[in-house]
Amino acid sequence: MEQKRIRVGITQGDTNGVGYEVILKAFTDPTMLELCTPIVYGNPRIATYHRKGLSLSTNFASVQNAGEAQDDRLNLVVVDDTEVKIEMGQPSAEAGQQALKSLEQALADYRQGLIDVLVTAPINKHSIQSDKFHFPGHTEYIQNRVGDGQQALMILMNERLRVALVTTHLPIRKVADAITAENIVGKLEILNRTLLRDFAISGPRIAVLALNPHAGENGLLGNEEQETIVPAIEQANQQGINAYGPYAADGFFGTRAYEHYDAVLAMYHDQGLTAFKALAMDDGVNYTAGLPIVRTSPAHGTAYDIAGQGVANENSFRQAIYAAIDVLRNRRTFDEAGKNPLPKLYHDRREDDRRPPRRPEQ
Question: How remote is the C-alpha of 4 from its chain's centroid?
Fold first, then answer.
């Protein structure tokens, strides 16, 4: 029997940014329609404005609900059809409202099983704030709406590197207080499970970064490594998670030590993402792990500085679609394989001492 195509829900994001540009550019390639059934949640007037203004040839078909979406075309679910003032490259309340309407409808349709995965175009975190949205960003809002009590983990990734975060959208002055052993172990548990289930990696290896410069220099530059991070790594090892570190972030990325690991756990936003975006801006993907929903987005933001100029690179958005499809397929395979496991016929001595394998050479 022919398998149904994966239905990819796509939010329009901030309508004054590059969201529609990268969406429309991504689907200029007809082979994209062979991989999935794309369903954009947006305003057809705004989509048409962007398409004409950028002289793009991508066509879309407006539908009233996701149930009407068809294969072999770019579908647009009309969440609003009013005239909206477009101010390219400028934040505005109207653009924020459009972004929120799109996101709300997409999540409602996910709940009803009308889409399989979600890919979000970038938002302006200030413009979208309202009585309905009072979160630091997409990740926290999606966790609240469709997380079913599970905790999200932000992962920035491409084919060569995966960087996860202990703390995300948090002011620097609050980061140290949020670095607790419980928090680190919890993130390692989610990351390890994600590598196994979502990325089909057997025996994943995770590098853990330090918080302080030079990993604290044995307490000279801070005690968080000795008092919090090392004990958290040891606890994770006892749980069968292959975690190593803590490593000073500058040297770790500078020497390309990340190539020896399947993922990196950074302590805070800029520690991990500055390095990641320097290495992988054009093909990077933001993945929200740990939740029932598969959600990805491009690694870049609204890019106001180039909005409306037709120069935005759509590769990151295209990679976000590929990643969402791959993760969903891996999850289905993993869950199917685990439905009726065979009885265990051997004894693994590693289960007695719970020690991880030897640390890989750098």
Answer: 24
